[in-house]
Design goal:
Layout (H helix, E strand, L loop, with lengths): L8 E6 L3 E6 L3 E5 H4 L1 H4 L3 H5 L2 E2 L5 E4 L4 E4 H7 L1
Antiparallel strand pairs: 1-2, 2-3, 4-5, 5-6
């Protein structure tokens, strides 16, 4: 099995309908329903507190205690 490099984001954006991942070569828009059940039912304020990890490998939502990896999100897109 070949090992692949992890996908990282350089920035993230939150909209009413989706999470937008800014990658080195493209932007990926993921509807909240495809991110997680917790994010699908969250308020706009809760979603807007997203914090990109320093290395760009994951996202943390402090008001929801939710953590998701960029690799996992891109795979679901």
């Amino acid at each position: 099995m070949q090992k692949t490099e992890p996908i990282t984001a350089t920035a993230i954006e939150t909209t009413r309908e989706s999470l937008v991942l800014v990658l080195a070569d493209r932007r990926v828009r993921i509807p909240w329903e495809r991110c997680s059940k917790k994010l699908a039912s969250a308020t706009k304020l809760q979603r807007s507190t997203a914090e990109l990890s320093p290395g760009g490998y994951g996202i943390h939502w402090p008001l929801l205690d939710e953590d998701l990896s960029i690799n996992g999100l891109v795979r679901e897109a």
